[in-house]
Amino acid sequence: MKSKVYFTDMRTKPGNGMYDKFDRLLKRAGIEMLDLEGKMVALKINFGEPGNLAYIRPNYAARVVRKVKELGGKPFLTDANTLYYGRRANAVDHLEAAMENGFNRIAVGCDVIIADGLTGSDAKEIPINLKHVEKAKIGTIIADADVILSLTHFKGHEQTGFGGTIKNIGMGSGSRKGKMEMHSASKPEMVEENCVACGMCIKNCPEKAIAYKRNRKAQIDYDKCIGCGQCVASCHYGAARAPYDQSAEILNEKMAEYAYAVLQGKQHFHVSFIMNVSPDCDCWDTNDQALVPDIGIAASFDPVSLDKACVDLVNKSPGIQSSRLFDKGEYKDEEDKFVHVHPDVHWKECLIHAQEIRLGTMDYELSVVK
Question: What's the pTM?
Fold first, then answer.
């Protein structure tokens, strides 16, 4: 059975601006069918690494917050801390980054709560017993929420082909240990020449698995290491590293399983913004030229159908001549844009597995909202 995906483009006229079209899209897609009265509603979003300007405009999040409140819900914006060291690696810096990019109570109408706590270790294990993941490590705030509403910036991604709803929910809701499980087939490693003996990895290791060698270089005791990634996020010098050695296929499949863990047994609804379709993730502190012109906004109860519809809309759109599509010779219109930009990654693996575990279906019907 086909899932419904609703879509509105970027065309406007006086009396029918993007706010009006967005509100109609939410209503037509069925957001009012959700039982939100008194419910804790997590609006899962990526706040964007400061310096990157392709993330979702806070104005759109504010419209969703308003609608949730109208329906009696208690909304909050949330995301989990990053695995790598950066401006979103701990809750204090993450909140400042969100504020800097316009996600605050004044602009959006609700507060930001970081899903996995101060240092990325606040998580719940959700049993799913699927192909790769037995228990998903999900940020406690997201695991405890009554309802999940995802707001996703649809773009390319260097490790998964594209970053859509499943990535936003699956990878984005994983605690630091969960992100390690998805990204790596092994445990963190130490690059000795980068170690300055600052002691941050030792201080932040929950298992006391790191100590100095005689030359004052940090070393991991792998008999004690649990692979949580705390050393990676606390190291400012690139000495502690996550070995991104998981195959793209398994990473995509694990990501789908994590999304399954987040959504199982909960009401959920998803919106994808097909704008500023940058070739890489919003986790970079820059964003390259968009691959295609802004396309519009899509919404659905089915995250798999939504991702598939967004891929199709991007691939049907003309490529921008000054984008990365045309860096290495002539791009042909019939080519898959995400495969062209990231030829070693096959995004279909994620959607195929997501469909197999009944997260949703790739078979959809697109309904246009004027």
Answer: 0.91
